[in-house]
Write a structure and sequence with these properties.
By secondary structure, this protein is α+β, with helices and mostly antiparallel strands. The protein contains 13 helices and twelve strands. The strands form three sheets. A five-stranded antiparallel sheet has the order 2-1-5-4-3, sandwiched between helices.
């Protein structure tokens, strides 16, 4: 500091001396001008370097070159290092900020940042989809003005954020069910998190329906059994009547047994999500066995035709494949009126896909029912499965077996003409 003060005083002294000399040699006004000029030159130089330093601190470009030396050179070097360090820290913070934003954008959950007055400060793409909003258009808008669901508005207004709420009919297509909870954070800010629970709700509904259907299916034969047993216990029956009741009870018992076996099979298939083992399965030999079983089940009431156009077999689980094939054949026999025809075929497509198909001449199925046929206990006609002895689980079992064997279950039907159920196996499953 003393060095710079000394230089400044020396500069002033020099300006006075030169001014006095010039005024003695020429005129007083000339001396004053010389003194001012001596002081103005370093002052102008100082302003020049200040301008360069301002550029150094403001420009986003790199270092601003300068030929300054001495004190100005040291100052430029120090400011340059400070600016470069600051820029590096800013770039690091920007990179971290971008990573956080990218992480929130990649999240399947909706994230909305609100101020204390419920104005939108930021939201991710999932939140835009859930609430039908656009951050570019709706930034700083009150979210309760944009999402007019009464339960949602009431939740925000009462500010009881201890528990989440579930709102239905959300999203642009009004087909989503969203779980929402708000968390206070920072200084008078709110973080709104939204999760799509549509599939969870559907799964829960399917679980309730499944329990209800199983209870109903088992309760019906149990009611019949209990009724017959109470009758036989309280009334003396003639031998032929007694035998008739016992026969009916046996039928209901076998029905419950089939239902339990199908439920266990379905449970095992659903628990095992891996693909079936690559064991050799002789489809041609299986077709011969299936024909015997089909003719026994039909008891001469239908025309049964088996067609084999290839000797090629499959890789898969023999027990599961037999279950899938026999389920399709038994369904066709059960639902085809007497005198109808069932055609069972096995062959290869030009693309080397294995094709096992069962075609019947039954009443056919309306197109609206086809997508739901593989649902557990789904019936086109409420009494259809009970009248024919089915459990309502056969096609659900076939679908799971098909998935485990790299196959597709394809269903086509024409009302009044019949139906075709086809299993299309991938080439890697062909022997």
């Amino acid at each position: 500091m003393r060095l710079y003060l000394g230089r400044f005083l020396a500069l002033i002294a020099l300006s006075f001396i030169l001014g006095w000399i010039v005024s003695e040699m020429a005129a007083p006004i000339a001396g004053v001008l010389v003194a001012i000029l001596v002081l103005a030159i370093p002052l102008a130089k100082g302003y020049f370097y200040l301008e360069r330093m301002q550029q150094l601190t403001l420009l986003d470009a790199g270092k601003v070159a300068s030929k300054a030396s001495g004190a100005w050179g040291d100052a430029f070097s120090k400011v340059d290092r400070i600016v470069m360090d600051a820029r590096a820290q800013i770039h690091v913070l920007e990179a971290r900020h971008n990573r956080f934003i990218q992480g929130f954008q990649a999240s399947p959950n909706g994230v909305v940042m609100l101020d204390d007055d419920l104005h939108i400060e930021w939201c991710n793409a999932s939140a835009e989809n859930f609430f039908g909003i656009s951050f570019r258009k709706d930034n700083l808008q009150n979210i309760s003005f944009l999402v007019r669901n009464p339960d949602f508005v009431n939740y925000l207004t009462l500010r009881r954020f201890e528990h989440p709420i579930v709102i239905q009919r959300m999203g642009f297509a009004h087909e989503l069910t969203i779980a929402i909870q708000v968390f206070p954070f920072g200084e008078d800010q709110l973080l709104l998190l939204a999760q799509d629970v549509t599939d969870l709700q559907k799964t829960e509904a399917m679980r309730r329906d499944f329990v209800a259907n199983v209870s109903h299916e088992i309760r019906t034969p149990l009611t019949v059994l209990i009724g017959f047993l109470e009758t036989m216990q309280s009334i003396d029956l003639a031998p032929d009547q007694r035998n008739r009741y016992i026969g009916l009870m046996m039928t209901q018992s076998y029905r419950m047994k089939s239902l339990v076996e199908d439920l266990l099979t379905l449970a095992n298939l659903e628990a095992n999500t891996s693909f079936a083992p690559m064991q050799e399965f002789d489809v041609v030999a299986e077709m011969a066995a299936l024909k015997i079983d089909a003719e026994a089940l039909s008891a001469g009431r239908h025309r049964i035709v088996f067609e084999v156009t290839t000797q090629t077999g499959l890789y898969g689980d023999r027990r599961e494949l037999h279950s899938a094939f026999s389920n399709l054949i038994s369904n066709a026999i059960r639902y085809t009126p007497e005198g109808g025809q069932i055609t069972v075929s096995w062959g290869l497509s030009p693309s080397r896909h294995g094709l096992f198909s069962v075609t019947d001449t039954g009443p056919g199925i309306e197109a609206v029912h086809l997508p739901r046929l593989t649902e557990r206990f789904y019936r086109v006609d409420g009494s259809r499965s009970r009248d024919t002895g089915g459990t309502g689980l056969g096609l659900a079992i076939v679908k799971h077996i098909a998935t485990r064997h790299n196959a597709q279950l394809l269903i086509s039907s024409v009302v009044g003409e019949g139906s075709t159920f086809k299993l299309r196996f991938a080439p890697e499953r062909i022997l």
